[in-house]
Design goal:
- The chain is mainly α.
- It is built from one helix and no strands.
- The longest helix is centred in the middle third of the chain and has 58 residues.
Amino acid sequence: MLDILLDKIATYKEKTESIKGKIKKALFYPTAVIIVAIIVTIVILMFVIPSSRSCSAASGDLPAFTCW
């Protein structure tokens, strides 16, 4: 009786570990996409927007769409 019970427990543990591995694999891509999106947003906020502001301030008599 003990060997049957231990076999069931081992099977349960193996299935649990398999499901955990599948969940980790499934969550890797969305996590990577979110991290890249955050990095791109930070770069845009730090470098692109300040340079476009200086372009629009320096242009003076140029049309507004020139610096965009």
